[in-house]
Amino acid sequence: MTTKYLLAISGNDIFSGGGLYADLSTYSANGIHGFVAVTCLTAMTENGFEVFGTDQTVFGHQLNSLKNVPFSGIKLGLLPNVAVAELALDFVKAHKDIPIVLDPVLVCKESHDVEVSALRDELLKFFPYATIITPNLVEAELLAQRPIKTLEDMKAVAKHLHDLGATNVVIKGGNRFSQEVALDVFYDGVDYTVLEYPILETNNVGAGCTFASSIASQLVNGQPVKEAVRLSKDFVYEAIRHSDQYGVKQHYEKD
């Protein structure tokens, strides 16, 4: 069997729950060899959870080192600033014939000091090259610049993001509308599919990264987009359900 190579352009989560750790673990679980171009480091400081973008020159060298690897797909996660995003976009343009999954992490849940407006404009440039984008509700609101209060709003925003150039959109709704059911909406430009899963009590982080990485893995393994989304929801749900519930929340709450 030919080895498949999947690139994660993503950040280093100091608590190892999300980012490149979730990406590589998911690739491995799907029988794929993973590569990483690291976009940032993170750490807890006196100011809370902070993101430190990789030096632009260093990040460029990382991508240049990988230019001849025969990747079967690319998954993009946290792009901390415009400079890093521009380099990532150039790399994506050079690989536009393979599956591209964009997880547009505009706002870290722990910090809101990202250059949101400038990054939004930059992320929109990825849309024509992305096979699918996977924003959560906050990110979808920021990208579309309109609020989401209901399931119908989710559908309308998914269509708006499609109109902005995204071929396929899945908005991760979580439990905003219900404490019993997590709702996600998938839109392919024609049909809406609502995915419902029971809420799981957990402190785990990295579900969004794992979801996007699983979609990328499924696409590389030959699944159509809608089926890749469904299989990835199953994968994430089961991963959380069988986790040890360690979670990193306790680290944030110390001191």
From TrEMBL:
UniProt keyword Nucleotide-binding, yes or no: yes
InterPro entries: HMP/HMP-P_kinase_dom, PM/HMP-P_kinase-1, Ribokinase-like
UniProt keyword terms in alphabetical order: ATP-binding, Kinase, Magnesium, Metal-binding, Nucleotide-binding, Transferase
CDD domains: HMPP_kinase
Span of domain Pyridoxamine kinase/Phosphomethylpyrimidine kinase: 13-248
EC number: 2.7.1.35
Gene Ontology molecular-function annotations: pyridoxal kinase activity
Claim: Magnesium is one of the keywords in the record: yes
Family annotation (Gene3D superfamilies): 3.40.1190.20
SUPFAM superfamilies, alphabetized: Ribokinase-like
Any Pfam family the entry gives: Phos_pyr_kin
Cross-referenced PANTHER family: PHOSPHOMETHYLPYRIMIDINE KINASE (PTHR20858), PYRIDOXINE KINASE (PTHR20858:SF19)
Family: Belongs to the ThiD family.
Protein's recorded name: pyridoxal kinase
